């Protein structure tokens, strides 16, 4: 098999890919808030002598409503965020090689990132999230940017060969 020296990935980010990324990055906060309020409702109902069963049923019902409401709010906010950010809607190009990843936004900017700049690369069903050293900054490369399964596999090989001591989470 021929060794690939670099992969060129390009495309335009879609709303669905961005909302999946935002949900994934906010899910811990979402679940923590829901767990806290579910526990609070359970304790308050239990203290009001509503009984154990009634407290459990009420708190789980409230948990379900909160989860649905917060998912809908997050979906709405993510879509608005995406629609307002014109740079996210521009054509992106990523060049992956032994040195790192070059990120280009058409007619706007270029970032040369070395493999040492990354702290974690995680695969989601429709994209890869690349976390920078701070873990507060990340960008995503949608799988729709890869023209073939071979390019996805080549990308994974670049990651595994260059991030030996870092976290890599592939499906």
Q: Mean pLDDT, nearest integer?
A: 89
Range of helix content: 40-55%
- Sketch the topology as an H/E string, one letter per element: EHHEEEEEEHE
Contiguous uncertain segments of 5+ residues: none
The N- and C-terminal alpha carbons lie at a distance of 23 Å
Shape type: elongated
CATH topology of the largest domain: PH-domain like
Tally of separate helices: 3
Strand order of the largest sheet: 1-2-3-4
CATH-defined architecture of the largest domain: Roll
Evaluate the radius of gyration.
21 Å
Count of discrete structural domains: 2
Q: Could you name the CATH homologous superfamily of the largest domain?
A: Pleckstrin-homology domain (PH domain)/Phosphotyrosine-binding domain (PTB)
Query: Mind describing the biggest β-sheet?
Result: 4 strands, antiparallel
Class by alpha and beta content: alpha+beta
Beta-strand level of the residues, as a percent range? 25-35%
Short characterization:
With 171 residues, the chain is an alpha+beta fold. Helices cover 47% and strands 27% of the residues.
Give a verbal description of the structure.
The strands form 2 sheets. This protein has a 4-stranded antiparallel sheet. The protein has a 4-stranded mixed sheet with strand order 7-6-5-8, covered by helices on one side. The protein has helices at 15-47, 52-84, 149-162; strands at 6-12, 91-97, 100-105, 109-114, 118-123, 127-132, 138-142, 167-169. It has 3 helices and 8 strands; from the N terminus they run E-H-H-E-E-E-E-E-E-H-E.
